[in-house]
Amino acid sequence: MTWTDSQSWASSLMGPTPLAVSIAILLVLTIPLFLHLLIYRSTTSTTLPSFLLVGPSGAGKTALLTLFERGQHAETRTSQVPLSVEVSLPVSTKAVSSKYRSVNDPSNQAHKKFLLADTPGHGKLRHHAFDSVIKPQNLKGIIFMVDAADMSMGTSGAGNEPLHQAAEYLHDILLLLQKRSTRSKTSKAPRELPVLIAANKLDLFTALPPPLVKTALESEISNVRSSRATGLLDSGIGMNDLDIGEEKEWLGNGGDGKFEFSQMDEVNIAVSVAGGNVLGADESDVKQWWDWIAGNL
Amino acid sequence: MLDGFEILTTSGVVLWSKSYAPVSSSVIDSFIRDVFIEEKVLPGASVADDTSATQNPSYKRDQYTLKWASVKDMGLIFVAVYQSLLHLSWIDKLLDNIRIIFVDLYKDQLRKPHTSVVECDFDGYFDQQIRELESAAEKNPTRIAQPLLAELTPPSSSESGHEGPPPPLPGLAPGYLKKQQINGDSTDASPIPTPDTSRPSTPAAHILAGKSGPKGGSRRARKAVTNPANVSSGDERKAKPKKETGKKMRRWDADGLADEEDGAVLDYSAQSPQENGAAKSEYISGVDSIDSQSFGTRTTKGQFVLKDLDSEVHSILEGANEKKAQSSSSKSGLVGSSLGAISGLFRNVVGGNVLTKEDLVKPIRAIEEHLLNKNVAREAAVRLCEGVERELIGVKTASFESVETTIRSAMESSLRRILTPTTSLDILRSISSVTSPSQLNPLSPQPRPYVISIVGVNGVGKSTNLSKLAFFLLQNRFNLLIAACDTFRSGAVEQLRVHARNLKELAEREKLGKVELYEKGYGKDAANIAKDAVAYAAQQHFDVVLIDTAGRRHNDTRLMSNLEKFGNFANPDKILMVGEALVGSDSVGQARSFNAAFGSKRRLDGFIISKCDTVGDMVGTLVSMVHATGIPVVFLGVGQHYGDLRTLNVSWAVDMLMT
């Protein structure tokens, strides 16, 4: 079989046979369609932006989650597993990404949705939260909930166990976030990741106002940092020969002096504090938290 | 009488709850913490598909007793709360039935991702179950193990509780039922034995169900006269009554139930005739029993409004039993088994395999062997493996994941959970909070020395670890007093004296804190010396008192009994037990006896595991000791020098154990 043979398949394919023509037309018509589908399918299947809820047990994380999802809070108990739900912004708040959209834009609805991931706050189950901080999927921000009513006045020094627990947890989370930027291989700074410290239960009489929550946490984190600095080494270090070169890392400005949340700006972590209450005698007040979420969506 | 019943998810959302008396939410919170997270109360030894209530030990808190059942793959927990004084024999049955009904009704909603909402209108079903089980318990007390007298008490107490404001009590049921009994042999009771007898998941369930069928029929014989079409049983007639019951349910739903539910329920009842069509001759008897039931409820419909709900509930329960029976009987065929084996092999590679006990036996055995090789005590290894097995049965493996990797990751996470401490172990902070309490708060206590005492078996390195700890505290500029309370072994005081001298020299050279030895020679009572030492330290403004004690064998009751007095006299803030990493199975016994030795009020606060450098990666002792007591590991001794003390890094330990 040669090229000159008029009966060979190659020459018949080149010839103006109806079959060849129809195949050509089919290809011409379908390729653009196929490409269109391919490109647009891949963009629409991206995951929703997500926010992570962390904080010590009993701060009100799951209650906030149900409140955001349903508009009213449900009864909750101690969580054991993480849970993520799809939440859309309320009508009154508008996401910052849709600032320039028309009110009548039909895609507004889609841009108001996000995933809210709840994590258990019990001491033994915090690895869930740490895992999702290390491997984020389109993570837009972290909400750290604290029980403002539990950090009683005047004892911001030693002996305030709930405050210490919260500060230690927050310290660990911030340290992980800092490592994310200092350990990265590229010189490019990682994307900015905002952290909201949500002071919950402000309706209670004993609750500290948000600015005081901030200073209490800052001073307690300084304590945690200094006691970590003088503490013993981890068993992991020095016992395997692999990571002997790795040094311990300190949060903030090299780990001395007083810790302030503004020190985290250096590694692209913006920490803000806002108050509110999920439950309450009158009704819940979560407006500030919605605004924060909308501002980062 | 029941105080409350809750259906909640493992993620912490309460899906449905009913309370007859106010129960503080902290009761259930602490129940979750102790049973599921910290595993202080170990579940029963037997392993079931979904843990049913009978196998779970009850949990007691305050004056309440909690019974529970769970569905793992959906993450549901069913909890019943009642006063400990009462003896409710039907609670287990209630939990199991509610579990089956709830899962069946709302399984579609429960499987939905990214939502915590389950719209359920469950009150009717729950009340029906309570009424039914209560009446069953009242009618035939012989079936329940309790004596008659004890059986009579719950209704009376229920009557007293029933005066309270909360929603209509199930306590109403007895009176309501008595009226029925007077009227004649009520049909109410017959449905209950039926699910009960067909409960066992053996193939024999068909025969049992078959037996119960005719019995129910005979009882209803006089009513059946009115409707002769249903008396004769046959294959063609079967479809007809089915349809009629279906219609009836729909009518009832129009009254109050959500529309989507009736679809699921109807679907369910329609399913059973299909299955029967496939294997006619085998299941005829089972079908007959359903038929006669739906027929019975229909005739009594004029009398009881809630009868429809009954029939719906019973068909769900029946269906669950039948499914169970079928799944157990379907395995017997030769062709079926070989096909199953092939598809099982395939699924093992691809994933998506629903794990059964048989799948798990071999890999679990392998991992148990692995743990034993890592020097985990046998008892701890067995219990860990049982825990993992319980966790995994009924779980679907992820795609492209074999059974082995699934078990491995489950074991890793359970090891991690065990080793992670519940509270912060920052010893420096707790010392400074005692020695220099905050000045701002007028209520804070006076500064006093912080007392740490160290106990352990002979020769594990108590004195060595004490001096390592002393060195660490000196570096943090604390003033130490070392109390030599080993008044028994010759040379013990001299050994500490050498340590104290070395540390003093080190401290002076590097301008650290000061250290002193408090000794009173040999032969005296250790508890008294410890007490004197603490008093002396308070007088001389020392920050920390470290008390060394004599080594004692944990099975020597005479020596161990001294510890209680010692604990009372010295009143240490922290009692640390030193255990060596070299010890094997004995570690469990050591940890338990030392933990129990300080009386009922005092426990150990932590372990120091010494000689970790000598065992390489066989650090199983860590797990054995923590697993036996739930007390965290505070320090590890990793060498001969004063600086060789480390805190535990959990992921390092888990890595060591799993490689």
Automatic annotation (TrEMBL), chain A:
Compartmental location: Endoplasmic reticulum membrane
Transmembrane parts of this sequence: 20-40
GO cellular component, one term: endoplasmic reticulum membrane
Entry keyword set: Endoplasmic reticulum, GTP-binding, Membrane, Nucleotide-binding, Receptor, Transmembrane, Transmembrane helix
Keyword Endoplasmic reticulum: yes
Protein name according to UniProt: Signal recognition particle receptor subunit beta
GO molecular function: GTP binding
Domain of life of the source: Eukaryota
Protein family (similarity comment): Belongs to the SRP receptor beta subunit family.
Topological type in the membrane: Single-pass membrane protein
From TrEMBL, chain B:
SMART domains per the UniProt record, alphabetical: AAA, SRP54, SRP54_N
Listed GO MF terms: GTP binding; GTPase activity; signal recognition particle binding
Composition skew (Basic and acidic residues), residue ranges: 234-254
Residue numbers spanned by region Disordered: 152-257
Alphabetical keyword list: Endoplasmic reticulum, GTP-binding, Membrane, Nucleotide-binding, Receptor
Stored InterPro entries: AAA+_ATPase, Longin-like_dom_sf, P-loop_NTPase, Sig_recog_particle_rcpt_asu_N, Signal_recog_particl_SRP54_hlx, SRP/SRP_N, SRP54_GTPase_dom, SRP54_N_sf
Any one of the GO BP annotations: intracellular protein transport
Keyword Kinase: no
Main localization of the protein described in the UniProt heading: endoplasmic reticulum
Subcellular localization(s) per the UniProt record: Endoplasmic reticulum membrane
SRP54-type proteins GTP-binding domain boundaries: 632-645
Topology within the bilayer: Peripheral membrane protein
CC per GO annotation: signal recognition particle receptor complex
Protein's name in the database: Signal recognition particle receptor subunit alpha homolog
Organism from which the protein derives: Alectoria fallacina
